[in-house]
Backbone:
């Protein structure tokens, strides 16, 4: 099944975080919130779920966008591509692997323009003790690729912005389902109603 939709947004008097140079000291940059003028966003989105094999399920989201920001001191217009893909691999009835990755060509946040954001996440799960015990291990950004690399634009000033956070993490979890496999007896409403009458 292929799902898609198109969205057109036109906004004015938007309030965003603004990074600007101080009028008296160009070396001093100020973070503030201001009315950011006009903006428009034309986007086309699609979702593509696909069964590659009996042991391989995939789901891909795609978003194509033309985003514009306009103020008296700044104009930004960019074509943006966002891709996110998710894959589940069933190795056995008890073991499966999940891969999730995304890519964003540009991110516009006020007058901050960031390019090429991407990350990969990997997860493994295994069931034990008659599938009641579930072990999960996940690794986020194993290749340490996630970083912020962009520019800040304000009037005649352009400043490069680079940041790398501790995005590579490892998580291990255990969960036990005490109710798995238990059968519950259906409650007869007629009998319960009759017992209630006898107590009155």
Residues:
């Amino acid at each position: 099944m292929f799902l898609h939709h198109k969205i057109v947004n036109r906004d004015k008097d938007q309030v965003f975080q603004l990074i600007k140079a101080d009028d008296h000291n160009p070396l001093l940059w100020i973070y503030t919130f201001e009315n950011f003028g006009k903006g428009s966003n034309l986007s086309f989105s699609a979702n593509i779920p696909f069964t590659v094999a009996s042991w391989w399920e995939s789901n891909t989201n795609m978003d194509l966008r033309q985003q514009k920001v306009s103020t008296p001191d700044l104009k930004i217009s960019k074509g943006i591509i966002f891709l996110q893909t998710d894959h589940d691999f069933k190795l056995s009835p008890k073991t499966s692997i999940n891969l999730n990755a995304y890519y964003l060509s540009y991110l516009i946040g006020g007058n901050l323009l960031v390019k090429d954001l991407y990350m990969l996440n990997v997860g493994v799960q295994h069931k034990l003790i008659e599938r009641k015990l579930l072990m999960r291990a996940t690794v986020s950004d194993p290749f340490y690729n996630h970083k912020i690399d962009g520019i800040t634009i304000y009037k005649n000033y352009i400043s490069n912005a680079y940041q790398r956070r501790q995005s590579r993490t490892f998580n291990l979890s255990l969960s036990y389902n005490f109710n798995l496999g238990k059968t519950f007896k259906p409650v007869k409403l007629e009998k319960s109603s009759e017992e209630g009458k006898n107590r009155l």
